[in-house]
Amino acid sequence: MIKLYGGVFSRAAIVKWYLEELKIPYEFVLVDLQSGINLQSDYLAIHPFGKVPAIADGDFILWESGAILIYLAQKYDRMLDTVEKQAIVNQWILFGNSTLGDGLFSPQNSTKETPRLLGKLDSIFASQSYLTGDRLTAADIAVGAVLNYVIMMIKDFDYSPYPNVSAYIQRLRDRPAFQSSMTLK
Ligand SMILES: N[C@@H](CCC(=O)N[C@@H](CS)C(=O)NCC(=O)O)C(=O)O
Q1: CA atoms of 103 and 100, how far apart (whole Å)
Q2: Which of 121, 138, 127 has the alpha carbon at shortest distance from 85?
């Protein structure tokens, strides 16, 4: 069974969300980041930088949430049956974990980047429910997680100029796998 190493309120929630969407059985291993156990040798053998998330799929160990999403998509999403389909999903995962996150959260860039990024996403969601069409993929996990973190972390962030993005976030929040993974309980 896959082991998912994560902290409380950490980016491991993103991987948990995707594992639950895929209905893959997994064991959550709590790494207490407050205690510093993540910087001790046992955990450094899993993640050399002492961060979460990481997974162990049998003997195979992988860390960095985007890499884990790509691995799980490649291995378990049967609909991604061509290199090109997988590459488009990878593109969105990297976009979510770099361009989108940097643009929305960066104090220097967010004023310029927010309308540019959310404006385009809003026009995409005017005609489709998910990033690659009518079904959720790992692309939506990465991008949706960032859009959701914005609400949690930037007080008074206003999504109202982007009604299709708001509807998309709500669509993701309505999913049982999101609710059991990404909500603060
Ligand atoms: N880009 C990495 C970020 C990993 C990361 O910074 N994780 C945080 C928790 S969300 C962490 O492990 N912090 C503990 C520390 O830095 O000691 C990913 O997405 O996996």
Answers
A1: 5
A2: 138
Q: Which of 21, 52, 75 is the last residue of a domain?
A: 75
Cβ within 8 Å of residue 48, ≥6 positions away: none
Query: How many Å lie between the centroid of ligand 1 and the Cα of residue 27?
Result: 19
Share of the chain above pLDDT 70, in %: 99
| Average pLDDT score over the chain | 96
| Residue located nearest, by CA, to atom 10 of ligand 1 | 10
Mutate to test the pocket of ligand 1, among 9, 47, 51 (most ligand atoms within 8 A of CB): 51
Neighbours of 57 (CB within 10 A): 17
Write down which residue in 42, 75, 108 finishes a domain. Answer: 75
Q: What is the pTM of this model?
A: 0.97
Is the Cβ atom of 33 under 6 angstroms away from ligand 1? yes
**Does some domain include residue 43?**
yes
Contact (CB, 8 A) for 5 and 29? yes
Q: What is the CATH number of the domain that holds 123?
A: 1.20.1050.10
**Helix or strand or coil: residue 4?**
strand
Answer whether residue 184 shows pLDDT above 70.
no
Which ligand 1 atom minimizes the distance to the CA of 14? 19
Cβ of 46 less than 6 Å from ligand 1 = no
